[in-house]
Design a protein that fits this description.
mainly alpha, transmembrane helix, membrane, transmembrane
Length: 96
């Protein structure tokens, strides 16, 4: 029962963090260059969204460890790992 609760929480955190980031990063409000509401919104909210995705990734790793199998969580782990890797490359300016 506890693992099912953790799965639901991790899944909700994952989709909340990822979808909100994708909406913020690709919306016309935040695409404006310079100062304004768009950049302020990104700078204020984005770190918390990134932390929610990292927490979700850690929860899914814990769930996989407890179940001794990646069979049920490999998709979520792949999506979050790729997105966090992309963000790391983006913020270290390794890619444009």
């Amino acid at each position: 029962m506890e693992i099912e609760k953790l799965k639901k929480t991790a899944n909700n955190l994952m989709w909340f963090g990822l979808l909100t980031q994708w909406i913020l990063l690709f919306s016309p409000i935040t695409r404006r260059v310079g100062m304004g509401i768009g950049m302020g919104l990104i700078l204020l909210v984005l770190p918390f969204l990134i932390l929610s995705v990292i927490l979700s990734l850690l929860l899914f790793l814990y769930i996989s460890y407890e179940e001794k199998s990646f069979k049920n969580t490999w998709g979520q782990l792949l999506i979050m790992s790729l997105w966090l890797g992309y963000e790391a490359l983006l913020y270290t300016q390794a890619i444009g």
